[in-house]
Write a structure and sequence with these properties.
By secondary structure, the protein is mainly α. The protein folds into 2 domains: 3-89, Dna Ligase, domain 1 (2-Layer Sandwich); 94-286, no CATH class. Helices cover 43% and strands 9% of the residues. The chain has 11 helices and 6 strands. The chain has helices at residues 3-19, 37-46, 53-62, 80-89, 105-113, 153-172, 184-197, 204-216, 224-231, 272-279, 303-322, and strands spanning 27-31, 70-74, 94-98, 144-148, 288-291, 297-300. A two-stranded antiparallel sheet has the order 1-2. It has a two-stranded antiparallel sheet with strand order 3-4. A hairpin with a 5-residue loop joins strand 5 (288-291) and strand 6. The longest helix is centred in the middle third of the chain and has 20 residues, at 153-172. The radius of gyration is 28 Å and the shape is elongated.
Length: 323
């Protein structure tokens, strides 16, 4: 005889705690450090996200009695049980941060500074000697990172730094570098030039072979991206301005038209494809390359052929400019 009333009570509780919802549209809700359960419950109620402060507090008590700080995505139709469960377990809202390959430290910092889903300064406090406070080109691994919304910007940078360090540790153990490279820093430096020269993964080992061939012959690399890096005070972006012949005379250790060998450091942050291309270059005799007008490059073993390829590229460029 008691089955029906018990079942009715069960259904009522299921509805109140697990189905009923006051959330008419998705909302971002913030719990700050030091917020009390009562304070959070009252704010949820005032914002129309729950219809009973006591019901929310009851569920929180059942789940440990505390709410975790952070940003929470409360979706339309979320029940009081779901909301309390999120806040008690710290199921915070997440955001995806994409750091593209080939950006400089300055460009990455600018990108993260403009991301409204992150918090805090992109620069360290005076006197902070943490590794992330003295980042150099090549120490950040470009990738897609999923973090909690509101994560400090420096924490995202450090996450990318640690990932690159783990890749470095793996490769350094092999101690295998193509001649004439001698260490990981030189691998990264050449990989950064390859990364800036071509977006095509299939071309990267060929481009790497060109520069390695030139290094082995004592030829200057004559890589435009190194000049751009010098011209732009290590920003790495001409911001729409053309690279002119006169720019190639800039007095800088990064100017590979004037100086033999590699530049002193990498000129960008690189992905695995560029690193792999340098560590496993194509076997070629190429010493020159120039854009082919279709997103790739034409390669040549002698300067005469290179001049012909360059003239072809100039014609394509002029034709495109007229359009």
């Amino acid at each position: 005889m008691l089955i029906a009333p018990i079942f009715a009570v069960f259904c009522l509780l299921l509805y109140v705690f697990g189905i009923q919802s006051s959330v008419s549209e998705s909302t971002l809700f913030t719990v700050s450090r030091g917020d009390s359960v009562s304070g959070v419950a009252n704010r949820l109620y005032k914002n129309g996200l729950i219809d009973s402060v006591q019901t929310f507090k009851m569920v929180i008590r059942a789940k440990g009695g505390k709410v975790q700080r952070g940003y929470y995505d409360i979706h339309r139709g979320a029940s009081v049980w779901r909301i309390a469960d999120m806040l008690a377990n710290g199921t915070v809202a997440q955001t995806t941060i994409m750091i593209p390959e080939g950006l400089t430290v300055k460009q990455i910092k600018n990108q993260l500074s403009q991301n409204e889903n992150l918090s805090g300064s992109i620069e360290c406090a005076t006197g902070d000697k943490s590794p992330v406070c003295n980042l150099k080109e090549g120490q950040i691994f470009p990738d897609t990172y999923t973090v909690a919304r509101g994560t400090p910007r420096l924490a995202v940078l450090d996450l990318a730094r640690k990932k690159m360090k783990s890749i470095e540790d793996k490769w350094v153990k092999t101690n295998l570098w193509p001649k004439p490279l001698k260490n990981w820093s030189q691998v990264l430096t050449l990989a950064s030039i390859v990364q800036k020269e071509t977006p095509l993964i299939r071309e990267m080992p060929i481009v790497a072979s060109v520069y390695l061939n030139r290094l082995n012959k004592g030829m200057r690399l004559q890589a435009d991206p190194t000049v751009v890096y010098a011209l732009t005070d290590k920003l790495g972006d001409m911001q729409g301005q053309p690279l002119l012949r006169g720019h190639l005379k800039i007095d800088s250790p990064y100017n590979t038209y004037k100086n033999k060998g590699l530049p002193p450091t990498p000129i960008a942050n690189v992905g695995l494809a560029a690193i792999s291309a340098v560590l496993n270059p194509a076997e070629t005799n190429y010493l020159f390359f120039v854009a082919d007008g279709r997103g790739g490059h034409k390669f040549s073993v002698d300067y005469e052929q290179h001049k012909k390829n360059h003239n072809d590229w100039r014609k394509i460029k002029n034709k495109n400019n007229k359009k």
